[in-house]
Structures are given as structure tokens and as C-alpha cells.
Amino acid sequence: MKKTLKKLTLFMAIALTLIFSNGLVAKAEGDYDLDPIIEIQAHVQDRGWMGWQHNGVMVGTTGQGLRMEAIQIRLKAPYTNDKNLHIQYRVHVQNKGWMPWVKDGGTAGTVGEALRIEAIQIKVVDNNGNLRSDYRVGYYAHVQNIGWTGSGYDGQTVGTVGQELRMEAICIGVEKIK
């Protein structure tokens, strides 16, 4: 069990590095701030809400065949002081399709309906819903029969639509571009 946990932790660290190796983390001048900007929690089949995690930490489960049913993402202080900064997201839910956009800790998905999240889109926006160019969000998911997906950025779809596959876990990273 400890060996598996160590392997998973190492995998997550490497995967996060790969997410942001698209020129973001690799900049030598320190152009980007990797503070823990957000917190995330997932509502998982038979587990309920699993507790808040920060930037870059996996939420959900892998290897247990459990579906994510809902997710909440919120900004952490001091980022909550910027009244023109919001984390906005929506999910594609079994039998319902794309749900409305929610932001700043709102619940995306369903609770108590036993429906799976199949895909997600996440972005950092201003008060008018416009993408903020001074922040970047990257994310990838663990999906039934697929494993870890490729990365999505700034509102791109991660997961599957129309394939009836459950999203089981997600890892999200947000960074401020200096």
C-alpha cells in the first residue's frame, strides 16, 4: 500500500510538471507564481464529499471504479481579495449533458442522484466571464477504461462526451502569470 501511494505521488508530481512544462514552469526568470491559488473537493460515489485539496493535488479516486458526481473549486486567500478574479467551471453529466457554468466554490454536477461526471471545462475569468490572460489553468482527469487523459487548458474539455465513461479523479493546477 505504501509503495503504491509513493508511486502515485511520484506520478502526480511528474504529471503536474508535464502539464505546465508547456513553457510555464520551464522559464528560468521566475515569470510565474506557483502559489496554491485554488482548493478543490469532489463528491464521489459511496464516499460523499472527500475534503478540500489544494492546487495540483488529485481529488477523487483511482483503481476503485468509483464515479465523481460533483466538484467544487474555489480561490484561496489572498486571491479572494481580487473581486475581478473568478474560477469558473462546468461539467458534462450522465443523462443531463453540459450543466450550467458555476464559479467560486459552487457545485458542478449532482449530489444524491447517482450520476457520473463525464467531462469538465475550467477557466479563470473576470466579472464579465472573459478569460483572464494573467492566469492559466491546466487540468487532466482519470477516466474509466482510459486512465489519465491528456491535459486541457483554459476552458478546454477534459474527459469524454458521448462515450458513457465516468470521470474518477482530477488534478488541477492554476498559476499566476507575472
TrEMBL record:
<dbReference type="GO" id="GO:0008237">
    <property type="term" value="F:metallopeptidase activity"/>
</dbReference>
<keyword id="KW-0645">Protease</keyword>
<keyword id="KW-0732">Signal</keyword>
<keyword id="KW-0482">Metalloprotease</keyword>
<dbReference type="Pfam" id="PF07538">
    <property type="entry name" value="ChW"/>
</dbReference>
<protein>
    <submittedName>
        <fullName>ChW repeat-containing metalloprotease</fullName>
    </submittedName>
</protein>
<feature type="signal peptide">
    <location>
        <begin position="1"/>
        <end position="28"/>
    </location>
</feature>
<dbReference type="GO" id="GO:0006508">
    <property type="term" value="P:proteolysis"/>
</dbReference>
<dbReference type="InterPro" id="IPR006637">
    <property type="entry name" value="ChW"/>
</dbReference>
<keyword id="KW-0378">Hydrolase</keyword>
